[in-house]
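During the reporting period the student researcher (J.K.) took over the structure-prediction task from the postdoctoral fellow and processed the backlog of single-chain submissions. One of the processed entries is reproduced below for the supervisory committee.
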Amino acid sequence: MKMKKYAKFAIAAALAGVGIFLFYLSAASWGRMLLAKDRALLYLSQPLNVQAAEEAVEKSGEEKQTDGGQEDGTKTMPTFCIWGQKDAVEIANANLHRSAQADAILMCGNPELLFEDCRLPGSEDKQGCLLDEKAAWELFGSSEVVGKEVSYEGKPYFIRKVIPGKEGIFAFQAGSLWGSGNMEGGQTENGTYGEEPQGEGQHGGDGVLNRITMQKPEEKSLQDLAALWDYKYGVSAEILDLQLLRGIGGFCVLLVPLTSCVYFLWYLCRQYRNQQQLVWKAVVAALGLMMAACFFVLLKGYVHIPDDYIPTRWSDFSFWSQLWRQKWEALRMLGQMPKSTLDSGWMGAFAQTLGCGIFAEMAVLPLGFFCMDFTSEL
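J.K. obtained the following structure tokens:
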């Protein structure tokens, strides 16, 4: 009998260790997803050309100066960066006769929206670039290369900063490619953007700038920002609903605490029924109420339901079917859109949050039954 108890205890301890470790990984990954909640991502099915993107950024800057620098998302557009990626381009270090392949990130706007704590190269810096650690080591054999020169498509770029990463990234302001030919794109007579350049003036940036990363004010929804972009520039953009992924990930993180609380309440209920003295029944009941109150407070601070998930009228029963279709389309868009190197961040965080959260729950579920059997035999 003792061996049987020891075996149950060993299994329960192993399940508890695995569950806690996986829960930690899931919660840590979800925390990384939360760091990006002040960013909104939009996708352009019809990419902008470089001139149109440059003019959009310039127009936004002029509006902020006119409105005294306000960024409330109502009178002016929040800070944004229009960008895109060219896969496996060749960059060279002429001094050391080295070359490397990297994914080129072409930007128009604030690079800090794409790379944390990285304000260089600015939108007016047409000769600056960023390299990640992998590209820097392949080209120079070192990551201490700020100020050194690399070349891309015959044009020299000076390294402003080396960013963390092992993917192989080369980032620069796309405006450095503008002017290599007869560019007649940009803003049309009706004030819209995004027409393709005419003649033979197309260059490496056109057809690439299909993403927008935008600062998200707390009081504005993703739908508000997409509508504001369409209103300002006449170019429709589709929402990349990472808020939905954060909600799914948060639910997976919540599974283990919720299951643990249910098991503990179940255990207290059994103890309440088994107690013969009224005093101990009161103690057990008080513990149960305290734990339920603490869990309610934690849940209230943890769970936030966005306004677009709440119907405006209780009688609007079609709201839920429309919301389901909208969120399903958002998930399909996230799955089907062309992925960039920068997408690996949120994709990896979501996959780890989801996978580790589910496997942690699978470890905790049998753990409760083992604990119940073990305590009943004591």
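The committee noted the following: The first strand starts at residue 39 and ends at 48.
J.K. will present the remaining backlog at the next meeting.
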